[in-house]
Amino acid sequence: MKDNEILKFPLREELINLLQEELPLHSVYVISFSSEIKRQEIFLTPKCNSKNEMFTYTLLIIGFKSPSKNLSEFMEELYVKTKQGCRVNIIFHTLSNIKERIEIGDNFLTRIISQTPCMYKMDNALYRFSRIKLFFHSSIYKRIKKEWKSRIHRADYLLAVVNTNDEKKDANSKLAVMHFALEQVCLSLLLIFWEYKPHFYSLSYLMQLCSHFTELPNKVFPKTTFGLQRQFYMLCNAQHILRFKVTNEFSNKDADKVYKLCLRFYKESKILGKIKLEQLKKLHHPEAVHN
């Protein structure tokens, strides 16, 4: 990719226009892009063929000020306004904040600015920041390791709370606890793989971000059948159901099935995290490898 090159992507113009309606936009960087084509052929009269294409983006959006809507509403509105043809996972920063973050050694933002294609930019205000080298230091590794351990410990505790023989079981409550356990796991993975601390905590959003560097979210929580989709829905929406629904929508059997998946996700993430920590140790603290 050439310096300062603006690359074209499907629905680019439409997305940029929608973003500019919501905020004073400076630039947009494409962290990932995928497309899925669904074809349907109907042989019973009236016969017809149809083809729908679904796009999914993960974008770093940089504005001169924050959007008035919260991130959940913002992303949902983009989905609706593209006639449900495009899902956008947004990481947002203001221009002043991103300059400050890169100046003090934010490796995650530095990698995005220097490595990912630019979909749109108003000017070259970030050009010099794309030349900044990544920052490695033993203190960074120690902080990451400490925070990773803390979040993994929390997840372990929350899952242990769920795994009791209490006769007064409540499926919704168990699912809500599992939801927060997996939130901690996802935050730990994002920290060690991206050195990133998100400001939006929807579990489906965190899982989508984690799927950029590991297949675990899709492997443990596949959505190939209605039953599997339902289990993921239960987990992602448990805290909302607990707040707003009085009666239990799900059974203890449902909760037990989801618990097994959560435990598997936690255990495999912990193994993955330990491997990644060893890699980070070599990057941030090379002399410790020989100690």
Summarize the structure.
By secondary structure, the protein is α+β, with helices and mostly antiparallel strands.
Structural class: alpha+beta
Look at the structure and give the CATH class of the largest domain: Mainly Alpha
C-alpha end-to-end distance: 40 Å
**Low-confidence segments:** none
Helix-strand sequence: HEEHEHHEHHHHHH
Strand order of the largest sheet: 3-2-1-4
Helix content: 40-55%
Architecture (CATH level 2) name of the largest domain:
Up-down Bundle
Q: Any idea how many domains?
A: 2
Compute the number of strand runs: 4
- Biggest pleated-sheet summary: 4 strands, mixed
Give the averaged pLDDT, no decimals. 89
Percentage of residues in strands: 15-25%
CATH topology of the largest domain: Four Helix Bundle (Hemerythrin (Met), subunit A)
Q: Total helix count?
A: 10
Classified in CATH, the superfamily of the largest domain is Nucleotidyltransferases  domain 2
Round the Cα radius of gyration to an integer and report it. 21 Å
What spatial form do the alpha-carbon principal axes imply? globular
Task: Explain what this protein looks like in three dimensions.
By secondary structure, the protein is α+β, with helices and mostly antiparallel strands. It folds into two domains: 12-131, Beta Polymerase, domain 2, CATH 3.30.460; 138-290, Nucleotidyltransferases  domain 2 (Four Helix Bundle (Hemerythrin (Met), subunit A), Up-down Bundle), CATH 1.20.120.330. The protein is built from ten helices and four strands, in the order αββαβααβαααααα. It has helices at 12-22, 71-81, 95-103, 107-115, 138-162, 171-194, 203-210, 216-220, 226-244, 252-284, and strands at residues 25-42, 48-63, 86-94, 118-121. Strand 1 and strand 2 (48-63) form a beta hairpin. It is globular.
